[in-house]
Amino acid sequence: MQGGLPVFVLVGRPNVGKSTLFNRLTGTRDALVADFPGLTRDRQYGFGIFADRRFVVVDTGGLMPESADPLAALAEDQAQVALEDADQIFFLTDVHSGRHGSDAEIAKLLRKTGKPIHLLVNKAEGLNKSEAAGDFYALGLGEPRAISAQHGDGVAALMNSLLEHLPPNLEPSLDDNEVRVCVVGRPNVGKSTLVNRLIGEERVVAADQPGTTRDAIRVPFEYEGRPFVLIDTAGVRRRGKIEEAIEKFSVIKTLQAVEQAHVVIVVVDAQHDIGEQDARLMGLVAERGRAMVLAVNKWDHLKGDQREQVRYQVTLKMPYLDYVPTHYIAAKHGSGLGELMIDVQRAFEGAVIEMPTPELTRILERSVEAHSPPAVLGRRIKLRYAHQAGRNPPKILIHGNQTEKLPVAYRRYLINEFRAAFKLKGVPLQVSFKTGDNPFKDKKNQLTPRQIKKKQRTVDRWR
Predict the structure, then answer these.
(1) What residue stretches are annotated with the EngA-type G domain (predicted)?
(2) Pairwise CA distance, residues 402 & 387, whole Å
(3) Which of 109, 110, 114, 219 is the most buried (most CB within 10 A)?
(4) Is residue 315 located within the same domain as residue 363?
């Protein structure tokens, strides 16, 4: 773990429910789920949160040790990569299919890692513990835990027992002047070249082949008198070691580096398509709430029509990240880096901004006056006041009535109004809503003496 988020890796045979558990732990539907084996071939990564504790979850492809299928061998290679970075291993089995010969082979493989292993007997809803676990003690991995990834049975107890023994998450300090910047991207897009250019020395080894990356490293430097720390996901290597076998790109190290940063620079290669992996990586950064700047590198190698095509790709594949400033740079020659660093500093200032309650409420009132929320069943939605609920990312909490019925489009409208008012750039502003209780709910209306007399006269009249 080493200062980063704990990493939980899910392994097991195909179709035992790994992707379902991944989706439950991360609160997403990112992992494909279907009732046939072998659907997940590559690793899936996500941020999870439970009881205010954060972690990284990795869903691996189903392991089939006895299969001759080349895709099965590829899935096993992918799982091996994930296991190297695991802090805890969740070994899933299926109570309905029982203990399988492949389960014993997987257990043998996992024991060699020396990592903590948790044997989970999945799909055990409606079964008592002894019914579900009995057949799996033979795997020799300690006491099996009966869970239901689909319904959540036993999952909360599992996470409570694990997280209470792990150190607390550490947030990057918001009150010092040091800006932590993380540089991420696919292999060979120029991350290390960018870092070297910014700090003005060959501090981080750069090479022309992908995979000369290892652990995230911290590189302190000053830019225009301000202290920065660059967290580079390309590790320091001796130059003699670069010619060794190409190493695998570690998404886990990237996610842990994102956790430590105030601002993330996502680097993509202008000479290659802006792909799904780039969009997915940016989505993970946004999901974690980090400020972000996109750097499209190797721009100097493109001609006019090629540049227009790249701009179109950025707009097409990342429309949901329209708040992220995009810079077209040549890290090798330093062009565009000045403007890039200006937006990095703006993004940091936006991430840690203090937003006074009176000002937030004035912006809210002005926005509602210009464009009031729609009525629901004849009742008008009232938004009363707003206050700041957090920083990095900035969070705004709006109080009112019937706020749960606000349309998504109106919520987006308010986010854009706050973003424009505070000139936030590169920051994933979070706005949430809270409906206050009616102070007169369950209270009887107290009549005045005059009203009591009038009521009595009415009663007497109808007797």
Answers:
(1) 6-170, 179-352
(2) 18
(3) 110
(4) no
